[in-house]
Amino acid sequence: xxxxxxxxxxxxxxxxxxxxxxxxxxxxxxxxxxxxxxxxxxxxxxxxxxxxxxxxxxxxxxxxxxxxxxxxxxxxxxxxxxxxxxxxxxxxxxxxxxxxxxxxxxxxxxxxxxxxxxxxxxxxxxxxxxxxxxxxxxxxxxxxxxxxxxxxxxxxxxxxxxxxxxxxxxxxxxxxxxxxxxxxxxxxxxxxxxxxxxxxxxxxxxxxxxxxxxxxxxxxxxxxxxxxxxxxxxxxxxxxxxxxxxxxxxxxxxxxxxxxxxxxxxxxxxxxxxxxxxxxxxxxxxxxxxxxxxxxxxxxxxxxxxxxxxxxxxxxxxxxxxxxxxxxxxxxxxxxxxxxxxxxxxxxxxxxxxxxxxxxxxxxxxxxxxxxxxxxxxxxxxxxxxxxxxxxxxxxxxxxxxxxxxxxxxxxxxxxxxxxxxxxxxxxxxxxxxxxxxxxxxxxxxxxxxxxxxxxxxxxxxxxxxxxxxxxxxxxxxxxxxxxxxxxxxxxxxxxxxxxxxxxxxxxxxxxxxxxxxxxxxxxxxxxxxxxxxxxxxxxxxxxxxxxxxxxxxxxxxxxxxxxxxxxxxxxxxxxxxxxx
Amino acid sequence: xxxxxxxxxxxxxxxxxxxxxxxxxxxxxxxxxxxxxxxxxxxxxxxxxxxxxxxxxxxxxxxxxxxxxxxxxxxxxxxxxxxxxxxxxxxxxxxxxxxxxxxxxxxxxxxxxxxxxxxxxxxxxxxxxxxxxxxxxxxxxxxxxxxxxxxxxxxxxxxxxxxxxxxxxxxxxxxxxxxxxxxxxxxxxxxxxxxxxxxxxxxxxxxxxxxxxxxxxxxxxxxxxxxxxxxxxxxxxxxxxxxxxxxxxxxxxxxxxxxxxxxxxxxxxxxxxxxxxxxxxxxxxxxxxxxxxxxxxxxxxxxxxxxxxxxxxxxxxxxxxxxxxxxxxxxxxxxxxxxxxxxxxxxxxxxxxxxxxxxxxxxxxxxxxxxxxxxxxxxxxxxxxxxxxxxxxxxxxxxxxxxxxxxxxxxxxxxxxxxxxxxxxxxxxxxxxxxxxxxxxxxxxxxxxxxxxxxxxxxxxxxxxxxxxxxxxxxxxxxxxxxxxxxxxxxxxxxxxxxxxxxxxxxxxxxxxxxxxxxxxxxxxxxxxxxxxxxxxxxxxxxxxxxxxxxxxxxxxxxxxxxxxxxxxxxxxxx
Lengths: 581, 575
Known about the structure:
The complex is a heterodimer. By secondary structure, chain A is α/β, with parallel strands linked by helices. In chain A, about 65% of the residues lie in helices and about 10% in strands. Chain A has 22 helices and twelve strands.
């Protein structure tokens, strides 16, 4: 409960940004609910003007005008209330989403690397929707529901006290049945969603890899497994659907009972008093209250489930928004354009603190040197890059750039010094131009074209439907890995930072294309400190220094020739490439 | 969509009973206003308490019988709807299993997944609602109008005038809402994509210091979505007030004309109350009906998408054809002038390829990206069918063999490694379902994947979805073991060693050469080192063969091969 309170406070903080519309919405909902309740009173009076065989026609016009006025005003307030609610929810969702994305931009990479992306996306997209709609509509329905119940009671009491007491006495019946059904339905719903989850996971995995299923002739096995899971789901689904669909008829019956009790007591009172304690008009009016009196109770119980659901979503969304961001920048030092000397001093690091990865690594890269990092999978090559870019921070030791600790620099300034091309390419759903200019948004068309020509990307870009303005994801969806890698290289060719990080930068580009862009690539590398990770030893051979890593240690370092002469791990690695069987 | 009707077979009784019971319930409900009118006219006016009590008991009895009918209706309806959904899913899933690769490409896997899950769910609730409400709501509306006509024809004219006006407004606003809702959905998709981009691009975005621009861009999209939602809201917010105005003005008119007619002694007070009660019923039911129409429209669209999945005739069933008359002495596999064009493509992906492969041989396929390497090998198990020339397996054209007959002789290690959640043993057994632990261990050892034996649980080590708890190289080696365990006549390695370091790659090649069942091994690569010791190397360039031969020979005769080679090992070339 305490937790719910703090979540509610967070939600109210967002709602507080649209204070005026919220207050107005509640006010309007109060007014329209009260007026809606008042209308049957006028109808009752009109019916009372009709007695058997005679009607007081002269008294009708003022009542008709009154009714028309009430109807008109109610409608206007109803519209205003709906309109305002919509305004508020749309704005709140927008604000929460924007806050969530801003948080994503400053969360440590360790958070993004360890939380499934699908989960984060559903927090940003669907949870925010459920949260705002559920909470706001929930509150507004709760409010108008309570208004209606209290208003109805007052009006009913105004018509006849005895009848009202009878109606109130039966009310718990309606509540109990609704709760009874909801409880049983919930259990079945949980089982249904578990079974559905299992089936969906199966579909994702098997159908997602249908070509592999076919290659291994697993079609029949898959069908059998699918049908068993489907059968289980249907069993639960049938019961869940049936149980929920009981709510309506059962409450309709309970309402019929309430209605009957009201009709009986009302009719008897009218008869007994000869119309003095209750008129026929009052009786009709009371009956119409009796039908709508029970409805808000049912609504409220469904609103409460909705609110609980919304709170659960709110908790997930706020867990994301409240996640601790990267520690603030120290900004004790500044750097404009680095010379490019990098020193690792006794650096130790691990992702999972119980499993040490890098231990006590030290080396120096002089400005302009090309450093190749080689070693078997999982030896820590990519980790070095994560540390250099401050995607992760060292556990102990220090990294210096031009003699200054990188932890004293603002992250953005540090990262601006590096041009990075990764094996796992990334292009966003935007135009080719936007994709290329991410590091230099003010680049001219000329600069963009030159960079694309230098990287070899121009060859395929010019063949795309709209050239540089082709929107990926909308106009065109078929970029190959190699083409994406060429785009990544173009980004760096355009922004020309003082240092380079190339993690398998050309792994998806076929070697002939690679050869064609070699001259431009060499020019790019010229005079820049570069860290190169590659499987292809041929691309490493020309490095000024090679760091051979294994199990989180630098076990050998030197040039290609000196390492071969050392006759160690590097030599084994190198020879296996060319050795014939 | 009509084709789906057959999946109601066996559920027909439920499909008839559900609406029938529902209609009976509605009919019972229509009697209540009449009873209230009786209470007023015959009970209250006359002062007959026993009559009043009797009428009230009728109301309760009608309610109770109505409840029984409704519950029965809901039961049959739930049964029919969920049963229908189950059959649809089964039929669709079963049919997809027979899709050829071309059909899978055309249908698109993400789209098939949505059709099997979300779409079928919508169909289920559509069927459920249709059975329960499609007949009920119009029945109550028209029933009320008819009841009004029976009470007083002239007053009923008001009903006949009001119902169409209400119907036009309710459906008009709902339809406008649906159209606008489509736009909202498009923006939501953009929000999703944008979030995905932010997550998957975190490193690149930060490397280029583009965080704030990305966030601002997202904020723009979020604001655009909010704007269109507000616009949509302004229109749908009209529904309640307008219907409220119409129904209540009609009620005012109804009572007033009723009063006039009471004065002419044409109508009783009770009859006016009954008419008033019928009017109130109509609005509730019309709004329910409009909601229902939306559900049905969505369900129909979903049903259409699922039907397309089921109605596509499968082109590649897994059945194994009767043993073909393999020609003794014929080469294991022979390509004769083979060409292939993907469906919908302008240019052929492969042209005029000829090659002969014998048991125990190693065949290299080399070329740049898009040269046709993967296309070539996907023709061997008949994943795709060639449209020119002929491929012969043991002397028999493979067009005469079923995919199943071919695939049991072939072990494939695809370029993109796919493992399934389950134990190592389960995964390896994909290659041979009855493989024992010795066979599995032997395959793992040959594939250099024996690392897994040292993991917790060994063969029982649990692999997570998509092999998430293994490195790229480890997954590739397990995939190779999975292909080896069936001891195939043909082994296809489609760039399968790309994530392996050189030392492991080297040991793997040696182990493959030592296999006692002498498979013919196809090695696809972009690197000459991977194929240089093959018996034959086919060089592909832009879908056309640029040369066939051994490494040394190709270096002399094939310019493309020499270029590829030179681009990869300049030092080696210089020697």
